[in-house]
Design a protein that fits this description.
By secondary structure, the chain is of the alpha+beta class. The chain contains three helices and three strands; from the N terminus they run E-H-H-E-E-H.
Length: about 80
């Protein structure tokens, strides 16, 4: 791929047009100062595909814990309760 090269003064004068061209074409631009590379303008990353539905968007992220419906163990809680009295 042949990268376009612009001097920093030329880039400054045409900045918005250069950025739009990079966005549309996907071609990188190298900005130089006295012939030395100063910056590289890259196109934005492609957007990730959006989910079509919020239903099920958290699928696979929850974990089932055994004994959820059982009462909590009381071991050691009597001492803690005494502190709060």
């Amino acid at each position: 791929m042949n990268m376009e090269t612009l001097s920093v003064s030329r880039f400054k004068a045409t900045c918005l047009a250069v950025l739009e061209r990079v966005r549309q074409t996907g071609q990188e631009v190298l900005v130089t100062k006295r012939g030395e590379p100063m910056a590289r303008v890259l196109p934005p990353p492609l957007p990730e595909p959006a989910t079509t539905s919020r239903f099920g968007c958290r699928r696979g992220t929850l974990q089932e814990v055994a004994g959820v419906g059982e009462p909590a163990p009381l071991a050691g809680l009597e001492d803690d309760w005494a502190v709060w009295r």
